[in-house]
Design brief:
This protein is an alpha+beta fold. The longest helix is centred in the N-terminal third of the chain and has 31 residues, at 6-36.
């Protein structure tokens, strides 16, 4: 038998069920009432509450130099919009807004004109009135983005100084890309399309996904007249990349290239500076001469010619040709070749040396052929030993790494093109002529970008080990290295150590007594090779415009190589010589190596004689400190420490082996004797005692108008005559 009394319990459950049913019917009825009877009212409320999903842009990562200096970074920029429909539901505010519009529109337009002089106040007024007439919600006040300082100035103008709560205007913030060093390595670092924040070229484009980060999501909610952004998913900022570029070396290289382009009237200038041991690209220059609307020339990077231009390299290729001949053992350094008076018929076509009008070089040794950059000498050696099997020579060139794909992290990189002779089924060469090999040996019939040439010379400097050019050292996130790019060995050896040693010696002789003398330095040894190639534009060499591609590729210091460098210039007309590029190489190498010169000031002293400087009167405590640092003996009868900062006034007398420093004391109300002092000490000493000082001339004081020893009348003028 159940212990519950059903007659009492069931009525209670029934009552609860009835109550819940009534509540459900009431909720349903209320919902129907809202949906039908109050539909218009809630639609108005919904219009006042707007939710829009918007992307929350991540901050783009920075691009830094090898020593951590910013080369590209993101800063905020702003656009300001007028919202002419923001307060249309609020009658009172609409009336207030229209009153402000009528009263402040002219002053607003005048203020905008002061900030943006490119548009007149009348143009701003017409623009704003047009937006009001059309009742636009997103009407830009100024089409371009504003930096933070300009944005703050605009926010002080009428309407904009009311704040965002007014609902009459709003602003959008975007990340803009800026390069603190402006055009320095511009094409390599890369550019952005500002309007759409999209990478355009260079490292910005190649590493775009790493730099860009992951955008987040935010809801932009408008409640009545105020916008509020509520983050839904936070953005993940992009990573930073550390490049191998050295800002100081880049600046040195750019200045050297531009200066020579101005002197020689060049159209294009290229320079690449590499670190021998690692292959790090420390500087890369791509300057093109342009003209403004007035016809004045200026220089800018519009293309990464150093990696993208496939050019016939000219005589810098001869180093590879002679290396192949030495490596294959067909010649040695004692080999002698006749230059035939500077002109030689090579399979029916004239081959000339650059001094053919002066009778050429005559008989030359292997080393002299390279030193003088003899076209005839190189082409005759290669043709006589490889003419019957040209593919053997081309394979030897491939062995040096000149034709390797370097897999550079930059879009636009062009792989070298050095064609291989091919035979058909009848054992005949199908893409090869008898003149192809001689001209290939001196740098024609091939297309090689400058980056590949300097990589080859870098391998010569690096003991035969070819390093792949490195542009990126690491990827960093919040100060932590998440990926590091180690130096990559492209080829372990480009030739035997014996051949390499011979070529290194010859390349040094090119600078000391050959065509590359302008690349030399008095403080360290350099090595390299000049090159000159003709460029036919607008047709062939006979019908088109002939320009010249002038090169110098080498390394320094030659006895312990640290850096390799190539300089290329393109110019029209003569004179045209690889020596012009060698001169740029000289300036770059001198500027770079100056960083490693650490000389003590004592080294400037002549050890054969004792030089005692002429010291001015004045603060003898400071003079004593400087002379002590130079190990110059002083005599004095006082004590004091320069570190304490308290001056001791006196005289300095130069003697045979020392400087005698003496202290002088003058009462505070007596005019001191300042003759023999410098301007700084004399002015300080007189003005500290209440005199007004006026100076004539420069040097040291030879006369003072207010005599020494006179009682001081404060405010009096003392004229100092300097000489």
């Amino acid at each position: 038998m159940s212990k519950f009394d059903n007659d009492k319990v069931m009525p209670r459950y029934f009552l609860i069920a009835v109550v819940l049913t009534i509540i459900g019917i009431a909720v349903l009825g209320r919902a129907l009432y809202i949906m039908i009877a109050q539909k218009d009212y809630w639609e108005v409320v919904a219009d006042k509450l707007k939710v829009v999903n918007r992307p929350d842009e991540a901050t783009r990562g920075n691009i830094l130099s090898c020593d951590g200096q910013l080369m590209a970074t993101s800063i905020p920029e702003y656009k300001i919009f007028m919202d002419y429909r923001a307060t249309e539901e609020d009658t009172a505010w609409c009336h207030k807004r229209d009153t402000l519009w009528n009263e402040k529109l002219d002053s607003l337009c005048d203020g905008l004109h002061d900030i943006f002089p490119s548009m007149t106040a009348a143009e701003f007024k017409a623009r704003l009135q047009e937006g009001k007439r059309l009742q636009k919600r997103h009407w830009p006040v100024y089409k371009q983005r504003l930096d933070y300082n300009t944005f703050c100035r605009v926010k002080q103008l009428p309407f904009f100084n009311l704040g965002r709560r007014s609902g009459f205007h709003y602003d959008e913030e975007k990340n803009a890309r800026r390069r603190p060093f402006r055009s320095l390595a511009q094409r390599t670092v890369g550019d952005m399309y500002g309007g759409i924040d999209s990478a355009r070229c260079g490292l910005e484009l190649f590493y775009d996904s790493i730099l860009r980060g992951t955008p987040g999501i935010k809801n932009r909610i408008k409640v009545l007249n105020r916008y509020t952004d509520i983050p839904v998913q936070l953005p993940i900022d992009g990573c930073d990349i550390i490049t191998t570029i050295d800002v100081n070396m880049q600046d040195i290289a750019e200045r050297a290239v531009i200066d020579q382009m101005k002197v020689q009237n060049c159209d294009l200038g290229v320079a690449i500076l590499m670190e021998v041991e690692t292959g790090d690209v420390k500087a890369i220059v791509n300057m093109t001469r342009l003209h403004d609307k007035q016809g004045n020339p200026y220089y800018a990077e519009i293309k990464n010619n150093a990696i993208a231009d496939l050019r016939e390299p000219g005589s810098v290729f001869k180093t590879a040709s002679m290396m192949v001949a030495l490596e294959d053992g067909v010649v040695d350094t004692n080999y002698v070749q006749e230059a035939c008076g500077g002109t030689y018929k090579m399979h029916g076509r004239d081959m000339r040396d650059h001094n053919w009008r002066n009778g050429g070089y005559g008989r030359q040794t292997f080393s002299e052929i390279v030193e003088h950059s003899s076209n005839i000498g190189v082409s005759r050696i290669i043709d006589s030993h490889y003419g019957h099997r040209p593919e053997k020579f081309v394979k030897g060139i491939y062995r040096t790494g000149l034709a390797d794909d370097l897999h550079l992290p930059l879009y636009g990189y062009a792989k070298p093109r050095i064609r291989m002779p091919k035979k058909n089924s009848r054992n005949q060469y199908t893409n090869w002529s008898k003149t192809a090999l001689p001209w290939m040996s001196i740098g024609y019939e091939t297309q090689i970008p400058p980056i590949s040439t300097v990589t080859f010379y870098n391998a010569i400097a690096n003991g035969g080990k070819m390093m792949r050019p490195r542009f990126i050292k690491s990827i960093v996130k919040n100060g932590e290295v998440i990926e590091e790019f180690e130096p990559v060995v492209q080829r372990e050896q480009i030739c035997s150590p014996k051949t390499l040693k011979k070529m290194q010696t010859i390349l040094e002789r090119v600078v000391t007594r050959g065509t590359g003398k302008k690349a030399g330095s008095r403080t360290f040894r350099t090595a390299g090779k000049t090159g000159t190639a003709q460029i036919a534009e607008g047709g062939g060499y006979k019908t088109g415009t002939v320009k010249y591609w002038l090169s110098f590729a080498g390394y320094f210091p030659a006895d312990a190589p640290r850096y390799s460098c190539i300089v290329c210039l393109k110019k029209a007309g003569i004179p045209a010589s690889g020596g012009f590029s060698a001169e740029v190489f000289h300036h770059i190498s001198e500027g770079v190596m100056a960083r490693y010169l650490k000389r003590d000031v004592k080294s400037a002293r002549d050890t054969t004689s004792i030089l005692i400087p002429d010291v001015k009167n004045g603060n003898v405590l400071a003079a004593d400190y400087v002379l002590g640092q130079l190990d110059i003996k002083t005599s004095n009868g006082w004590d004091g420490s320069y570190a304490s900062g308290n001056p001791i006034w006196g005289t300095a007398t130069r003697q045979q082996k020392e400087v005698a420093l003496g202290r002088t004391k003058t009462a505070d109300n007596i005019t001191p004797d300042v003759t023999g002092m410098g301007a700084r000490d004399a002015v300080y000493l007189l003005e500290s005692r209440g005199l007004r000082v006026r100076m004539n001339g420069r040097g040291r004081v030879v006369k003072q108008s207010y005599p020494a020893g006179r009682a001081i009348a404060r405010g009096s003028e003392c004229v100092l005559t300097m000489n």
